[in-house]
Each structure stands twice: as C-alpha cells, then as structure tokens.
Write a structure and sequence with these properties.
The protein has 14 helices and six strands. By secondary structure, the chain is an alpha/beta fold. Helix 4 runs antiparallel to helix 7 (about 135-150) and helix 7 runs parallel beside helix 10.
Length: about 300
C-alpha cells in the first residue's frame, strides 16, 4: 500500500526533488512511453505522461516523441518550478504550519517511530520544526529523503528535461496549476489521509524500490495498463486521496484542454503518467465531452 500512496504523491513531491541531486540507479533502454494527440481544425494538442523523477541512464526519447516536441509551439506542465527549493519550503511552512499540533512521533503508530526518527535525522531538518508542521507538510519533506535514498534524480526527470529543451528553443512554458494550488490539494486532506502520506514518507526505501521499478518499466514501454495498475489496485489509494490527487485534477485539466481547443496552434502537455491511465484518466474525461484523444505511440 505505502509505495503506491507514495507514487500517487510523486507529482507534487517532485517540487522539492526536482531541485536536488541524488545517487544514480540504472534503467534500461526501451520502446518508448505513450503519447496521445487531440486535434480540431486548427489546433493540435499532444498529451504525454511523464515520470517526474528518473534514475540516471533512463532512455525515453523516441523519433515520434521528438517530432511532437519539435512541432509544438510551447510546453505545458503541471506546475512550473523556479529551481529554488527554499521557495517551496517557505510555501510549505506558510501553508502547513499550525499551532498546538501533537509531536510528529505521536501521529504514527509506535512501531513506526524509530523509522520516523531515522528519516528526520536524514532530512537535516530540526525535529522541532517538523513537529510544528501539519502531517501532510512533514510527509512532503520526508518523502524527498525517501526518493533520494532510492536513487531518483529530479534534475533528470522528464519535466526538467523538457523544460530545458523548450527554453533552449526559446518557446514558452506554462502550467496547469500553480505551486500554491498543488500544495493546497494536500493541505485540504483529512488528518487520516495526511497521516497515510506521513507513513509513506518513512517507509524503508527498499520496500518501494521494486514498485517504482515496475512502474518505470511500464512507462518506458508504453504499458498504460501497467501504469494504471499501480494506481487502480484496491490498496493503492483511499477514495479521498484518489479524488483529491487524481480525479478532480484530471477533470480540471480536461476542461482546460477543451477550452484550449478554441485557440489555434500546437502545444505539448506533459503531466504525470498516472493521470493518463485508468478509467478516470484525462483522455476518458475528454471522451465524455465528445473529444477524442488518439494514441500515437
């Protein structure tokens, strides 16, 4: 359960990790991730599912994908990052700090407290600071440590690489959400859901490594059903987490795409692969609006 909860939080958790350097972990070459296209008479929108953090050595670019990237007039990502992790920490502190909270150790079961203590020590943050954070905010910080220990590199993540490509081509980059909005999804979670994220943040990285390797393999080979299985298992997400982190955002993005079709031009949208897989994917929500997303790869 915990690795999948962590996978669901990966998109927003990458806000910090995308600014961090971590040890390498190898990944093999593959056929290529899935790519879709939505079109009308004068508009072309590419939909590409990403992995926000990647191990070193991940080969994901293909001729079809490169052609789409080159054609697009601009890039649209979930959220634009400044590259400065201190800005995200400041936002987490302003949104996620509340008075009279119980110590963080009291928010996990006794058998998790030693793991929590070790993860806090590895984070480099003072325990007193984390104790003042709401559970989602503390989880957010600790999940970064877990990803770093697993060897995932944010600066090699797909969005980071795409951003560099479009910047070098002097093409505009915009976002579907602001950092504040994305953090706000977590801030609105119930305490129970927040504590599930906190437990995910302190789980032994080895227990999540195999899960992420399976997800990475599915993504690299365009196995959309395999990606969906990571999120659709009955143990993957509580209804609250699924609704907040996946369904509501997918619906909002489908609305955005529908409106964007009224403007001419070609854009490349890159969002977490989990949002483009499963019965409540962005493509299915577009289909309910009578808009067809055609798979290219």
């Amino acid at each position: 359960m915990v690795p999948r909860v962590k996978a669901a939080a990966l998109g927003a958790a990458a806000l910090l990790a995308a600014c961090s350097a971590t040890p390498a972990m190898a990944a093999g070459k593959s056929a290529g991730p899935a790519l879709w296209q939505v079109t009308d008479a004068d508009t072309k929108i590419y939909l590409f599912g990403t992995i926000h953090l990647l191990p070193e050595g991940s080969h994901w670019r293909t001729p079809t994908l490169d052609g789409a990237i080159g054609q697009a007039d601009g890039l649209v990502v979930e959220v634009k990052l400044s590259g400065d992790p201190t800005q995200v920490i400041q936002l987490i502190s302003s949104l996620g700090m509340s008075p009279n909270l119980p110590p963080l150790a009291e928010r996990v079961l006794p058998d998790k407290r030693e793991a929590l203590k070790k993860m806090i020590a590895a984070s480099g943050f003072p325990p007193a600071f984390l104790d003042r954070l709401e559970s989602w905010a503390a989880a957010f910080i600790l999940i970064q440590v877990s990803f770093q220990q697993m060897g995932f590199k944010g600066d090699l993540g797909v969005e980071s690489q795409l951003t560099q490509t479009y910047q070098q081509a002097s093409k505009p980059i915009s976002s579907l959400e602001t950092v504040e909005q994305q953090l706000g999804f977590f801030d609105q979670l119930s305490e129970e859901a927040q504590r599930a994220l906190l437990v995910a943040g302190i789980e032994d990285p080895e227990s999540g490594r195999a899960e992420f390797q399976r997800m990475l393999k599915a993504w690299l080979t365009g196995d959309v059903k395999g990606i969906a299985a990571t999120f659709d298992s009955e143990m993957a997400l509580s209804p609250e987490l699924r609704d907040a982190l996946m369904n509501k955002r997918n619906a909002a993005w489908a609305d955005w795409i529908q409106k964007r079709l009224a403007e001419p031009g070609t854009i490349f949208i890159a969002v977490g692969a989990g949002h483009l897989a499963g019965p409540n994917s962005v493509q299915h929500m577009l289909e309910r609006k009578g808009i067809k997303a055609r798979r290219l790869e």
